[in-house]
Amino acid sequence: MDIQQVDLYKEAERYIPKGYDPELYKVRHSAAHILAQAVRERFAPEGEVSIAIGPPIEDGFYYDFDLPRAANEADLAWVEERMREIIKGKFPFAVREVSVEEAREFFKEEPYKLELIEGLARGQVDEYGNAVPEGEAPKITIYQHDTFADLCRGPHVRHTGEIKGTALKLMSVAGAYWRGDEKNRQLTRIYGTAFRKQSELDEYLKQLEEAKLRDHRKLGKELGLYAIEPQIVGQGLILWMPKGAVIRDQLERFLKSEQLAAGYQPVYTPNIAKLDLFKISGHYPYYKESQFPPLEDDEGNSYLLKPMNCPFHIMIYKQEHHSYRDLPIRLAEFGTVYRWEKSGEVSGMTRVRGFTQDDAHLFVTPDQVEEEFANVVELTLKVLDTFGLSDYRVRVGVREPNSDKYVGDAAIWDQATQAILNAIQRFPELKYTVEEGEAAFYGPKLDFVVRDVIKRDWQLGTVQVDMNLPERFELEYVGEDNAPHRPVMIHRAPFGSLERFIGILIEHFGGAFPLWLAPQQAAIIPIADRHLEWAKEVRTRLLAEGLRAEVDARSDRMNAKIREAQMQKVPYMLVIGDREVEEQAVSVRLRSNETVGALSLEQFVALAKRLINEKSLALQ
Ligand SMILES: [Zn+2]
Ligand SMILES: [Zn+2]
After folding, report:
1. Residue ranges making up the domain that contains 408
2. Which of 33, 29, 18 is nearest to 56 (CA)?
3. From 14, 48, 245, 416, which residue has the greatest number of CB atoms within 10 Å?
4. Residue 618 counted as domain residue
5. How far does residue 25's CA lie from ligand 2's centre (Å)?
6. At what angle do helices 73-88 and 22-43 cross, to 10 degrees?
């Protein structure tokens, strides 16, 4: 191998996304090429096969093809086997740089590659068709192993033998439009994954199985928590059913009381505002693609469905003159916002078009940033711990040094960044990483990465310093020196959005919510009709105590009723027979099938209320 090749190999490693294990990235990217070779061998005898793109993705890789017919199970099995053979061949991945003309000639039979080459030639896109920053025209390189060559920037493993055949699996087939555009031709996308060793693959498949059982879209339906009516109401717009509404209401109350205790002031703002507001804030037209189009009234005004709460809170701040003594001012609102997501990207509660942020904006002096950051971190940790989401770390996004893409005063940037780092130091247990270049253009930020019970990471609770909006809206406070100063703004939302957070909670708890959140806390199960009277009395007394309970008065057998309540993940089953009627008691069973035994009604109420007050994750 000549020097030129070695350099290209190394150089390509810069394309590995931050946080992606470099070795796995190369393995998966190489597996995608091998997949393409095997698919072509499988389908070429039946007609034209064109290859589109095949990048590594979060949990694996895919490749898009234009095939002469639909791919089926048998094809996948054949292709997977063939991939293992190619791996055994230990074919080296050879790379060479080519000119645009050479690339056109080389891929003259591949229409999709030719289109990508034209983009590459203009220096606008990379070979996946993604836009590249201006002035960063990538080199055009071709990687070849065995009989397969691809327009590709790498990086790859040295030879196919570096991939473990036993740690490789094809996962599924789906349709995908060329360049994600419905107007284009639909291609066949084959998904696969690859790991370093078989045990890692097995672990991943097990986790996937577990995740499927906990899928909030499945559980949301089974437990009657929420619904989506794409045809009549619209995609990505959530209808909260009574049971889901209980969970949301409990979360809102919890956070509201925590926020009041931390000195926040609740506010309410409208769902629409004149376009002018968002022109000042810069949300329009710069984020136009992610918003619903403006609404017009009969008097020539344009309005926007609110995509963000911040400009409204700023207008509230501006209603009064503020002195440094008034700060910090913390305005909080469960604000519903609307964003435009493409149909193909909308999913369950986690990718929606309308959602409610547990939003707040803090207006502070530069000196107060550290203290306020620490308070927000403390609040967020308390919230996460309450749900048993105690496996978390924090990422601090700071600016790239010597870059001019940021707004705001450099001294305030440094001060704010240092303040965030100081604030984190106050929590010695908190693991954190500092990521250069991950700040927004308007300020450094911090976000929480939370690991759920089945070891999936979720990004939650972003806290963001903003030096841009105070400038755009010319916010002021009068300082100790009697002169006007610009406040710093902090955006924060511990849950992010209630929809997404509850979606995550459904999966985290597998639908078995802790008592204080459970939509129905007790199922009262009379064994025979003669026990119904006491059962109803129990319900009345529980409701009066603020507990959520229902009587299952159906004529089904007791065991069937218990099973039904367990399926619905109701924490307690209160079984009532002759003895319970006589002793004014309830016989308590848990959804886990454990029996607690007979308790007087007063004892049960005391137990349940204590656990609810403590927001306990336990049931006894
Ligand atoms: Zn490639
Ligand atoms: Zn905001």
Report:
1. 246-269+321-509
2. 29
3. 416
4. no
5. 35
6. 120
Instruction: Kindly state the tokens that stand for 469.
Output: 């909006």
Q: How far apart are CA 354 and CA 499, in angstroms?
A: 9
The CATH number for 471's domain is 3.30.930.10
Tell me which DSSP letter residue 140 carries: P
| 509, 534, 550 - which closes a domain | 509
- What's the predicted TM-score (pTM) here? 0.82
Whether 111 contacts 50, CB under 8 Å: yes
> Helix or strand or coil: residue 176?
strand
DSSP label of 142: E
Ligand 1 geometric centre to CA of 341 (Å): 28
Length of the chain, in residues: 620
CA-nearest of 28, 19, 70, 335 to 189 is 70
Neighbours of ion ligand 1 (CB under 5 A): 150, 152
**Burial degree of 557 (CB within 10 A; 0-12, 13-18, 19+):** exposed
Mean pLDDT taken over the chain: 92
User: Same domain for 462 and 496?
Assistant: yes
Among the candidates 476, 509, 542, a domain finishes at 509
Whole-angstrom CA distances from 146 to 75, 77, 150, 159 are 21, 21, 11, 10
pLDDT-above-70 percentage for the chain: 97
User: Which one is predicted more confidently, 471 or 12?
Assistant: 471
pLDDT above 50: residue 174: yes
C-alpha of residue 464 to centroid of ligand 1, in Å: 36
Q: How many domains does the chain have?
A: 4
Q: Are 335 and 474 contained in the same domain?
A: yes
pLDDT in tens, 421-447: 999 999 998 999 999 888 888 899 999
Is pLDDT above 70 for 4?
A: no
Residue-wise pLDDT tens digits, 27-71: 999 999 999 999 999 999 999 999 999 999 989 999 999 999 999
Whether residue 301 is predicted with pLDDT greater than 90 in this model: the reply is yes
Ligand 2 (single-atom ion) residues, CB below 5 Å: 310, 491
* pLDDT-above-90 percentage for the chain: 77
Q: Please indicate, yes or no, if residue 19 is contained in any of the structural domains.
A: yes
Same domain as 70, residue 59: yes
**Residue in this structure with the two tokens 């437990």, named with its chain if needed:** 223
Other residues' Cβ atoms within 10 Å of the Cβ of residue 491:
23
Query: Which ligand is closest to the CA of 333, given by its number?
Result: 2
Q: In what order do the strands lie in the sheet with 265-266?
A: 265-266, 329-338, 354-364, 488-493, 457-466, 445-451, 391-398, 432-436
Q: Are residues 30 and 118 in the same domain?
A: yes
415 and 497 both lie in a single domain: yes
End-to-end CA gap in the chain: 68
Query: Which ligand neighbours the alpha carbon of 463 most closely?
Result: 2
Whether 406 is covered by a domain: the verdict is yes
> What are the tens digits of pLDDT across the range 537-584?
999 999 999 999 999 999 888 899 999 999 999 999 999 999 999 999
Q: What's the 371 CA to ligand 2 centre distance in angstroms?
A: 19
The answer to whether residue 493 sits within a structural domain is yes
Residues 286 and 373 occupy one common structural domain: no
Are 351 and 336 members of one domain? yes
- pLDDT beyond 50 at 154: yes
Q: How far is the CA of 26 from the centre of ligand 1 (A)?
A: 10
